[in-house]
Amino acid sequence: MASPIPEAFKDIWQPTIASWGEKLLATGEIVLTMIEQALGTEPGRLRDLTAGGPHLLGPNAANLDVLSAAGTIINAYHRDLNLLSIHGPATYPGLRIWLRNGTSMYIKMPPGHILIQAAHQLEWLTGGLITAGMHEVVVTAEALELRKSRQCPLRISSPCFQHVASRHPLIIIPEALAYEGLPKSVYEERLKRYPPITAGEQVRNELSAIGLARR
Q1: Which is deepest, 39, 154, 175, 209, by most CB within 10 Å?
Q2: Are 92 and 64 in contact (CB under 8 A)?
Q3: Measured between alpha carbons, how far is residue 186 from residues 24, 180, 193 in Å?
Q4: CB 86 within 8 A of CB 122
Q5: What gap in Å lies between CA 89 and CA 24, rounded to an integer?
Q6: Residue 85 neighbours by CB under 8 Å, 6+ apart
Q7: Global pTM?
Q8: Tens digits of residue pLDDT in 60-76
Q9: 182 pLDDT tier (thresholds 50, 70, 90)
């Protein structure tokens, strides 16, 4: 099903969205290259998996004149199911992330910067060396204060979800486990926790778990 195109932007919508998505995916490719180099695995090991993947640019909006109470949850606590989530600053603050030690913080992104979040497929491929980032989006007091001086009440973000192609298996990269120098017992436990599965199966399982799989 084709995405709706706003009438006011019908002449520029498609090329603008395509250009933005391509730039975000190119940024993801650079980050994957850096991860390959850090792990010491062969060049292209991660990047090649994304060729033909079901990448998705998912602009979304929340009206702060409707969701007008501080603390209102816009997107509930979750992790992303793909490989990398790549996006620029939203029009209003509100993205809250959790660190591996359980503490949380609100993201402040300077203009011109891109945020990269690790998602579940990258966690799978690295056997938990890199974990999928837990996050949520909340209406904050800061956002409501900014609303007073702005014409548009919409909090808009445009994340690009970079995926492993559905046909490819998610198999732990050996260098990722070697990187941690794990004891044999922990090594074997990681292999059980992240067994080989195709990316398509993994996505289907994730969508089923949250009630979004098509029957």
Answers
A1: 39
A2: yes
A3: 35, 10, 10
A4: no
A5: 12
A6: 116, 117, 119, 159, 160, 161, 162
A7: 0.93
A8: 999 999 999 999 999 99
A9: confident
